[in-house]
Amino acid sequence: MILSQFAIRLVVANAVDATFSKGDAIAIDMPMTVSAVVIYLGIILAGCVAVSIADSFAAKEIATRLRVSNAKAIFTQDFILRGGRKFSLYSRVVEADPFKAIVLPVSGNSVGIELRKQDVSWKEFLSIANQRPRSNHYSPVYRPIDSTINILFSSGTTGEPKAIPWTQLSPIRCSADGWAHNDIRAGDVYCWPTNLGWVMGPVVLFTCFLNGATLALYHGSPSGRGFGKFIQDAGVTVLGTVPSLVKTWKSSNCLEGLDWTKIKCFATTGEASNADDDLWLSSKSYYKPVLECCGGTELSSAYIQGSLLQPQAFGTFSTAAMTAGFVILDEHGHPYPDDKACVGEVGLLPLYLGATNRLLNADHEKVYFEGMPMHNGMRLRRHGDVLKRTVGGYLIVQGRADDTMNLGGIKTSSVEIERVCDGADESILETAAISVAPLGGGPEQLIMFVVLKKEYSHQPEKLKILFSRAIQSNLNPLFKVSFVKIVREFPRTASNKLLRRVLRDQVKQELSPRSRI
C-alpha cells in the first residue's frame, strides 16, 4: 500500500506517540527532504518538540545541540548525496553520542550502514505505528500558545550557540509575514534552498502550509544549472535566495536559456545584497521585484522587509515588517527622528508578535535588553544591526554593530566598504573588509580580503590602489587601504554568514612578533 505524505505524517505521529512522552525533545539532522518535513510535522503533531540541527555540522556541534536541548532521540540519514558521491552522516551523529537514532536510507528501502544496538531504521520505526489501531489517523495534541514546538539555534559564531524556543505563535508570525510582504497564497509554488537546522527551513515550511501554497524542495546543490532547471520545471512563483548564491549564478552563467518567467517575486536574506546582482536576478523574470528581508531566529520573522505595496530599490528595505517597530540610535543612544537620513544601531520596540521571551541556555534579559536605552517608557530590544536610512526613506543594513570600524576617528561599517570595493574592478567576485590596530598601537588599519573570479589574476598592490581610489571617491577621501590579501574563499558559518572575526584573527596572527620568528 502506498501512503500519501499526509498519511505518513500521521503514521510518524503515532510512532512518536508510542515511543516518546509528550513534550520530549527529538532532533532532526538531515537534508530538507520530503521525509524531513514529514518528520518535523509529525513530531509537533504528537505534542513533542522538534530540535533543528543543520546536516553540515561536525560531531562536536551536533553533540552541543543534543545536550542543550536534552534531546531523547535524533532522526538522521545513513548518508548524504553530493555530486553523485556518498558522505556518511550517521557516523557523525553517532560520534555525537545521542541516546537513540532513527536512521533513514538516502536511497532505497534499507539503510546502507550497520546501526548501534539502540538505534532503529526508518522502516522499523514506522512499523511501531502499525501495532496501533487506525495507525493512519491521529488526533492532534492541543497545547497552550506559549508551549515550545521547535528548538532552533543561533549561528554560534562566538561561544555556545543560543538555544531559541519557538512557540505555537511563531508559525503564525512568520507565515503572516509571507502573506503580507511576499503575497504568498494558495496556488503559489515557494522554493528557498535551506535546511531545517536554520530558521528559514521552518519559516518556508509554515509559510507554505498556513497560506495554502506548495513547498518546492530540491535535493542537491542550488549553485548549478540543475537547480535552475528545477525552478523552471516546478513552476516556482516565489524564489528565496542569499546574495552569495546569486553572485555564483551570475558569475558562472549557469542559468542561461532557462525560463523563470513564472516567478512573480524574489526574496533574499542572510547577508548584504549587491544592487547590480539584484538587477541581474530580477532580469531573469522580466524584472520582477527582489524583496529584502532581515530578522532573526529569536524574532520568528523579519523586522524590516521589502513590500509589494511600495516602490522598491535594489539592495534596500522599504518598511518595518508587519507588527514590528524600530528606531535608529545615535552614538549616545538617542533615537533619530523617523524622517531623518541617518546611520546607527537599531533598537527594536519590545512589543513584538512572535519574538522569544526566553532562551534555554542564556539569560534572555541580559542578551537582548540589558544596557539598551528606554524609548516611550519601554526598554528597547537589542538586535545588533547597524542601519542606514537614506534621504528617500529606504533602509540599508550596514553590518553588525560589532563590525563597525574606526578609521582615523571616523566610524564606518565593513559592509559599506565592501559594497564600494565589490564594484572597483570586473575581476572581483567578492570582498571582505576588516580593521586591526597596529602592534605598537595607533589608528586602526583597513585590510581588504578579496576573492577573484576564476578567469582573473591580480597583484595585491594593484588592487590596493583600485580599492583606495574607490573608497576615497565614494565614501571618504581620508580612508586608505593598508594592504590587500587574495584568498580562494571566505570562512563562513553553515548558514553562509561571513566570519570577519576569523579573518581578523588571521591578520593579527600574521602581524604578531611570534609569527615572524
UniProtKB/TrEMBL annotation:
Pfam families: AMP-binding. The chain crosses the membrane at residues 34-57. Residues 20-346 form the AMP-dependent synthetase/ligase domain. InterPro entries: AMP-bd_C_sf (IPR045851), AMP-binding_CS (IPR020845), AMP-dep_synth/lig_dom (IPR000873), ANL_N_sf (IPR042099). It comes from the Eukaryota. Keywords: Membrane, Transmembrane, Transmembrane helix. This is Probable acyl-activating enzyme 18, peroxisomal isoform X4. It comes from Gossypium hirsutum.
